[in-house]
Structures are given as C-alpha cells and as structure tokens.
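WARN retry 2 of 3 for item q-0093 after timeout on previous attempt; input resubmitted unchanged.
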Amino acid sequence: MKDYMAATDYFAQNMTQIDADRIGACGASFGGYSIYWLAGHNENHRFKAFLAHNGMFNFEQQCLETEEYWFTNWDLGGPYWEKNAKTAHSYANSPHLFVDKWNTPLCVVHSEFDFRIVASQGMAAYNAAKLRGLDARYLYFPDETHWVLRPQNSLLWHRNFIDWFDKYLKK
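OK item q-0093 returned
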C-alpha cells in the first residue's frame, strides 16, 4: 500500500501529463481490497474517486463467508481467532476498521456468484460509504462470478466505470 501511495505521488509530481487534482483509483479482487484500504488512508486526498470490484472489505466477515479458504489461510494467516503475528497484522488492516477516515466518492461493483468474495462484502462497503455521507454507487451483477464475462454485463461495467470517473475526474 505504501508503494501505491509513493508511486501515485511520484507520477503526480514528475509527469506533466498527470493532473494531480484529478487522480482516481480502481481495483478488482486484491485491487478491490486495495481500494477499500486506500479509502481509509487517503489523508491528503490524493485520490478524488474510487471504484472497487469484488474486493474484500471486512476480513473477519470474509473469513466466515468464503468458499475458498486457501486465501484466508495463505493471505490472512488463518482465521481471525488464531492468534499469531500474521493474523494480528492482517486483521488489523481490514479496510472496515478505517471507514471513519473515508472521505472520497466510492463506486462498488460486486457479483452474486462470486463465492470467493461474496456480494455482502460489496454491500457492506457501499453501506459504509453511504453512512459516511459520501456519494456512492453500487453496481450489482446477479448472474456473474468473480469476473464479468457476459457481453452485455461487460458493456454495462465499462460504461459505469467511464461514467463514474468522468463525474469526478473530467473537466
């Protein structure tokens, strides 16, 4: 995450074609988690808009909802009740713990048949943004998995992406 921040700052300061006042961030899967985490660590308001697709928002919730425990065991170090250095670090960095610092519009995209990261993760993040008083959008695909593969859904996904970032980043 520090690398994301450092890279964003470096490019904003050193690339004349980048307008530092109009930077957005988008991510899917691990990138979706990254967006939720960045939303809680956007103190200097580097990012003006976020879009998260099928990302983990609440690690404890994720631990009990997923059908794919390899990620819980490998990425997080195991279930949250197993007290070790890796789980302590992982669960302490769950994005839901930093919602009180959210200050940026957020678009959440999630799919019903993503059993790896279930749709309640996206709905929880969307609701958190709304409860914070932020402009938020929730795009839900009841017939997709971790990926959006149906042609019409893909068109909707891309139109939503462009519309969301145009709303906050386009002059």
